[in-house]
Amino acid sequence: MKDKLKEAALEYHRSPRPGKIKITPTKALTTSRDLALAYSPGVAAASELIAEDPAEAGNMTARSNLVGVVTNGTAVLGLGDIGPLAAKPVMEGKGVLFKKFADIDVFDIEIDERDPKKLIDIVASLGPTFGGINLEDIKAPECFEVEAALRERMNIPVFHDDQHGTAIIVAAAVTNALELVEKDIGEVKLAASGAGAAGMACLDLLVKLGMKRENITVSDKAGVVYEGRVEDMDPRKAQYATPTEKRTLAEILEGVDIFLGVSAGGIVTGEMIASMAERPIVLALANPVPEIMPDEVLAVRPDAIIATGRSDFPNQVNNVLCFPFIFRGALDVGATGINDEMQMACVNALAELTRKEVSPVSAAAYGEENLKFGPQYLIPKPFDPRLLVQLAPAVARAAIESGVATRPIENMEAYREKLEQFLWRTGILMKPIYDAARRDIKRIAFAEGEEEVILRAVQIILDDCVAKPVLIGRPSVIAQRVEKLGLRFDPESDVEIVNPEYDPRFREYWTLYHSLMERKGVSPVLAKAIVRTRNSVIAALSVKRGDADGLICGIVGRYQDKVERIRDVIGVQNGGDIMAALSVLGTEEGTYFVCDTQVNADPSAEEIVEITLMAAEKVRHFGLVPRVALLSHSSFGSHDDVQAQKMRRALDLLLERAPDLEVDGEMPADMAIDVEYRRRVFPNSRLKAPANLLVMPTLGAAHIAYNLARVVGNAVAVGPILLGTAQPAHILTPSATVRRVVNMTALAAVEAQLLESKQQEKDR
Length: 764
Ligand SMILES: NC(=O)C1=CN([C@@H]2O[C@H](COP(=O)(O)OP(=O)(O)OC[C@H]3O[C@@H](n4cnc5c(N)ncnc54)[C@H](OP(=O)(O)O)[C@@H]3O)[C@@H](O)[C@H]2O)C=CC1
Ligand SMILES: CC(=O)C(=O)O
Ligand SMILES: [Mg+2]
Hints:
Layout: H1 3-14, H2 32-38, H3 43-52, H4 57-60, E1 66-71, H5 84-102, E2 105-110, H6 116-124, E3 132-135, H7 142-153, E4 158-160, H8 161-181, E5 190-193, H9 197-208, E6 216-220, E7 223-224, H10 235-238, H11 249-253, E8 258-261, H12 270-274, E9 281-284, H13 294-300, E10 305-308, H14 323-332, H15 340-355, H16 360-371, H17 386-401, H18 412-426, H19 431-439, E11 443-446, H20 452-463, E12 468-472, H21 475-484, E13 496-498, H22 506-517, H23 524-533, H24 535-545, E14 550-553, H25 559-569, E15 580-586, E16 591-595, H26 605-621, E17 627-631, H27 642-657, E18 662-667, H28 669-673, H29 675-681, E19 693-695, H30 699-712, E20 716-723, E21 729-731, H31 738-763
Parallel strand pairs: 1-2, 1-3, 3-4, 5-6, 5-8, 8-9, 9-10, 11-12, 11-14, 12-13, 14-21, 16-19, 17-18, 17-19
Antiparallel strand pairs: 6-7, 15-16, 15-20
Helix pairs in contact: 5-14, 6-7, 8-9, 8-15, 14-17, 15-17, 16-19, 17-18, 19-31, 20-31, 22-23, 24-25, 26-27
The structure holds NADPH dihydro-nicotinamide-adenine-dinucleotide phosphate, pyruvic acid and magnesium ion.
Catalytic activity: oxaloacetate + H(+) = pyruvate + CO2; (S)-malate + NADP(+) = pyruvate + CO2 + NADPH
GO molecular function: acyltransferase activity; malate dehydrogenase (decarboxylating) (NADP+) activity; metal ion binding; NAD binding
Binding site for a divalent metal cation: 136-137, 162, 287
C-alpha cells in the first residue's frame, strides 16, 4: 500500500473517534415516561409478548434488521491468519457497508476460537440476538463445516460471504466477460489459484452455470491439486482434483481462457499470463494486493479482460456488490435461509444490471465510456444506487417463489419505492454527482476561502478529486488556518488563491465590474472599493471571466446581498428573469424538494410558475419525476384570500405552460404528502402520488417549513440550490456543514460540465 494511503487510512480509523461505527437509539428517551416505556416497568410487556409468541421479537426488537458479522480471524482478506482482534477493523468495515448500502444494522462479533465445533456452538447460541449471520474471513476447510452446521441449526439466513458473496460476483463477471469475448461457458478452460473458501464456492457456482468440471484445474500453496495428491488435501479440494501431470500454476495457466485468483498477492507473473489463450479473462481477486497487477497483465496481453478486488481499477469484483443486497432481500421477507435460487437471482440481476440502460443520473456520473457494457465495465460499481433497488427485490422474489419467505411481500413496486427512499436519505444518490464531478475536474471559487468550514471541505474535495478549489482569501491567513486545523493540503500548490488585498488581476476585475455596473450608479472608485472588499463579487467576477467554472458563497453574510451580487455579475439564465432557491430534504418518509426557501419574499402567480418550472427541471436532473404540489393554507378553493387565489392562478398558468407536468393545488402540506387524505377531500386531483416538489406561496412559509422539518425531522439536507443563474453559483447559509459544502461543490461542478457541453453543442 502506498504510504500516503496507509497514513490516510490510519487517520480515518483513528479520528475524530476511534473506529467506524457506533450504536444510536431509535426511540426518544427524554422524559420519565419514555424511561418507563423503554425500560422497567414497560419493557416487561414486550418481553412477555415475545415469551408467548417468539415471532413478536421481529416487532418488539431490532432483531429482524440485525446481522451478526462473525469471524475468528483465520483468513482475513489476503492477510491470512492474523487473529480475531486484528480482524475487527475489517468486520467494522463490513458493518459500515451493510448500513450505508442497505440500512442493515450490524454487530461485529470477533470470536477467539479456532476449533470449528466450539465455534459452531458459540455462533448458534447467538440466534436470539440476530436476524441473520454473515460469516467472514474464516479459513478453509473449517469454514465449510462451520457454515453447513449453522445453516442446519439456525432458522435464520447464514451466509459465508467469502464463499457465496464472492462466487456470486465472480459468476456475474464471468457471464458478462464470456459474452464479450464470445466464448461458451461449456467450452472454456479455467485455472484457479486458491482452493479455499472463495475458490471452492466460485468453482461450484461456475459449474452450476455450465462450466465443465474437467475443464477446471486448481492450485494452492502445495501446487496443483491433482488426483492422488495426499499433501494438504481435504474433501472439498478433492472434488476438483484432476488427472494431470502438471504440478505448477505456470503449467496449468498455459492455454486456458480464464484465470481465477483467490489466493495471495503477487504470485502470478506476466510470463504466465502471456501463455493463456486468446482474449484471456484474468480475475486477480486477492485483497488488498491482487495475484497480478492490471498493468502487468496488459503489458503482455493487451487483449485481456481484467478484474481485481480493488476499487482503484476498473471491474472491481468484490463481495461488497452482493452481501448488503442479498441480506436486504432476505431480511425483508423473513427468509429462513439464503438458498440457491436467491443466489442465482442475485447473479442474474447483477449481470443484467451492467447491460441495462442507465438512469440519466448514473450516466452523467460515470460517463459514457465507463458505463457502456464492455471490457472496462463488466459489473456494476459498488456505489451504483441501482444495486439496492434491483438486487434486493430479485432476492426477495426468489425467496418467496422458493418457499423460504415467512413474510412475503405483496406489493413489489411499493417495496422498490421504499428502497429508493432509503437511498435518498443516506445521500448515496449524491454519489453519482461526485463521480460525474471527478470525470472532468472544474474550478470552483469559494468566496469565503478563509473560513474553517470551507477549508475542511476543501480537504475532502481534494482527497475525493471533486473539483479544483479557488480560494478567495489572504494567503497567509489560509496557510495559518490550514496548519492550525491539521489539514493536509498545501495552500501553495493544491489550490489556487485569489488574494483580495493584492492580486495582479485586480485591474481586470474592477474594470469588468465597472463595465457591468456603470449604469447602476457605480463609479470607478466605488467599483475598486467593492472589488477589494466583497469576496462574493470577486468570486462572481472570476466565474464571469472564466477563471473559475462555478462558485460557492454564503457561509458569512446576508443571503439577499449575495443574490444581488450574483445577479449583477453573473446574471440570470437566457430567457428567464428570476432566480430562486430549491432545498432538498431527505427524510424517513421520502425526499422532498422545497422552494423558494431563500430568494423571492412574495412571488406573484407568474413568478411561482417560473420557479416551479425551474425547480421541476432540477428534480429531473436528480433522476426523479417531479410531482408538484402548490401549497397553501387553502384546500382546493376552501379559502378565497389573496394567497389562496395566487396559487390557484399559478396552477391555471402552469397547466397552460406545461400540460404534462404532474401538478395540483392549492392544497395544505399534509394533503400533498398523504394521498389517502387527499383522495377523501378531493378525489379528482391530477396528482395521484405523494408530492415530491413542494412549492410554497411565500418565502416565509418555505423557509420556516424547511428548517423545521430539517431539524425536527432529523432530515438530510442538500442545498439551497440556486436556480436560474447564467453560470453555476450557489449561496449556502451560515448553518452549512462541511458535508453540505462538499455536496454543493460537486453539484456546481456537474452543472459547469453540463453548461460546457450545451455550449459546445451550440457552437457545432
Ligand atoms: N475480491 C473479493 O471479493 C474476495 C477476495 N478474496 C480473497 O481471496 C483470497 C483467499 O480468501 P479465502 O478463500 O477466504 O481464504 P482461505 O484461507 O480460505 O483460502 C486461501 C487459499 O489460497 C491459497 N493460497 C494462499 N497463499 C497462497 C500462495 N502464496 N500460493 C498459492 N496459493 C495460496 C491457500 O492454499 P492452501 O489451501 O494450500 O492453504 C488456500 O487454498 C484472499 O486474498 C482474499 O482477500 C476472498 C473473498 C472475496
Ligand atoms: C472482500 C473480502 O471479503 C475479502 O477479501 O476477504
Ligand atoms: Mg472476506
